[in-house]
Amino acid sequence: xxxxxxxxxxxxxxxxxxxxxxxxxxxxxxxxxxxxxxxxxxxxxxxxxxxxxxxxxxxxxxxxxxxxxxxxxxxxxxxxxxxxxxxxxxxxxxxxxxxxxxxxxxxxxxxxxxxxxxxxxxxxxxxxxxxxxxxxxxxxxxxxxxxxxxxxxxxxxxxxxxxxxxxxxxxxxxxxxxxxxxxxxxxxxxxxxxxxxxxxxxxxxxxxxxxxxxxxxxxxxxxxxxxxxxxxxxxxxxxxxxxxxxxxxxxxxxxxxxxxxxxxxxxxxxxxxxxxxxxxxxxxxxxxxxxxxxxxxxxxxxxxxxxxxxxxxxxxxxxxxxxxxxxxxxxxxxxxxxxxxxxxxxxxxxxxxxxxxxxxxxxxxxxxxxxxxxxxxxxxxxxxxxxxxxxxxxxxxxxxxxxxxxxxxxxxxxxxxxxxxxxxxxxxxxxxxxxxxxxxxxxxxxxxxxxxxxxxxxxxxxxxxxxxxxxxxxxxxxxxxxxxxxxxxxxxx
Length: 493
Ligand SMILES: Nc1ncnc2c1ncn2[C@@H]1O[C@H](COP(=O)(O)OP(=O)(O)O)[C@@H](O)[C@H]1O
Ligand SMILES: C[C@@](O)(CCOP(=O)(O)OP(=O)(O)O)CC(=O)O
Fold this sequence. Notes:
- Pathway: Isoprenoid biosynthesis; isopentenyl diphosphate biosynthesis via mevalonate pathway; isopentenyl diphosphate from (R)-mevalonate: step 2/3.
- The chain has helices at 86-103, 105-111, 130-135, 142-145, 168-183, 198-215, 222-229, 243-246, 250-253, 256-260, 293-307, 309-338, 340-350, 366-393, 400-410, 448-458, 488-492; strands at residues 3-15, 27-42, 48-52, 60-67, 73-77, 116-122, 232-235, 270-273, 280-287, 415-419, 428-434, 464-467, 478-480.
- It is an alpha+beta fold.
C-alpha cells in the first residue's frame, strides 16, 4: 500500500465509571464522531521513521529501526529531537516486533526499505477550543465550532494541551497500531467488514497492551475497546492476561503473539454493540476545570475496599441501574423499528416539555413515553448514586458546581438524561436530548439542543464550552481515503 490512513473514534463512558474496572459490571460506552487519524506513507531513508503531529509545537519524532537477531527489533529515537513521545515510541516498538513475529524479517525489511513518514492528527474536539473561540470572538455554541478549521493547530506543546476527555491516547494508539498492522499486511483490509474478525481482535489485543504499557497501568480498557469496536456495553478483560508482557523484560523474551493472539482465551473481555435511541442526540461539553482521573480512582477503590459489604451492595445497586438504563435505551431502537411514525410523533411531543412533566395524557405512544420516562429516571438515579459514591469516598465525582449545571440542563424541555462521564470530576458533562426529525417541523430555536446550548452559553459559574461530537455509528476503527476527510490532505503537506 502506498498510503494507509486509519481513523479511530473517541469515547464517552455514559454509565459505569469505576464499576467497569471490575469484570462483574458493564460500562455503557458511546463512541464519538470525533476521530483520530494516522496516515502512513513511504519515507525518504531506509529504516527511518519520521512521526509528525502537526497540531503541536515541537512534535516531530525521528526514529531508526534496528532489526537484531531472531525476532528482536529496536526502535531508537534520534538524540537531536526536542521532545519524546512514549505512546508513539512504544506503539512503533511493539507493533514492529509483532509484525516481525507474524510476517518474518524479510517482509519487515522490505516495507521499511524506504522508511516511513507517519502523520498523526486528532479532530479538534480532543483538545479544548475555548481559547480559539475567544481569539476569533465567537460565542461558545455549536455553530461556532464549525468556523474553526479542521485539525487546527493548538498553539502549544503536547504536554501543555488542555484535553477534553474523549480519550486521545486510546484513539491515537488504536489508529496508529491498526494503521501499522494494515500497512504491513499483518491484518487484512477485507477483515474490517466483520466486527468479530480475528484480525480486528488482534488489533484490539495489541492496542490494549500497548496502551497499558504506555500508561504504566492496566485500566479497564473501555476506551481502546470503543476505538476498536464502536459503541458498546463493555466488560473488561482480566488484567493477568498481560502480566507477563507488562514486566520490564516480558516483551522481549517470549513472543508477543503468544499473548496477543486472538485465539488466546485469556482475553475474556465482552463487547455487546450498543446505540443510542433514534431521534436523540448526545451533547458533550468541556468544562474549564480539569480533574486527575488516577487520583479519583485510587481514592474510590480504597473506600470500596474499606467499606466491605456495604460498598459491595452499593456497587450492585448502581450496576443494576446502569444495566437498566442500557436496556431501556436499546429497547427504544426496537420501538422505533415497530412504528416509525408513532415514534417520531412522540419525540416531537416529548421535546416540548421537561422530562419531569412527561405524561401519557399528552398523546404519544404509551410504550415509547414509558421507555423515555424510564430512561430519564434511571439516568437521574445513576447521577444520585454517583454523587453518593463521591461523598462517601470523599472525592468530587459530581461536585456541587456540576450538579447545579446538570440540574439546569435536565430541567430543559426534551432532555432525557445527563451526567458526568467516566470518572466524573469537574472536566466534562454529557447530555442526551430528543432531536425531532425535520418533518416534525419543530422551530429551530425550540429544539432541545438549543435550550441546552443556551444554558451552557449563559452559564457563568463554570466555563462551559460545547464539543461538536455526536454519537458515531461506525463500528470502530476504519480505513480512510485522505481526500474524503476535510482538512486532512492540508496537514499532510
Ligand atoms: N495528537 C497527538 N499526537 C501524538 N501523540 C498524542 C496526541 N494526542 C495524544 N498523544 C499521546 O497521548 C498522551 C496523552 O495520554 P493521556 O494523558 O493518557 O491522555 P488521554 O486521557 O487523552 O488519553 C500524550 O502524552 C501523547 O503521548
Ligand atoms: C474510573 C474509570 O472507570 C473510568 C475513567 O473514565 P474517564 O473517561 O474519566 O477516563 P480518562 O480518559 O482516563 O480521563 C477508570 C477505567 O475504567 O479505566
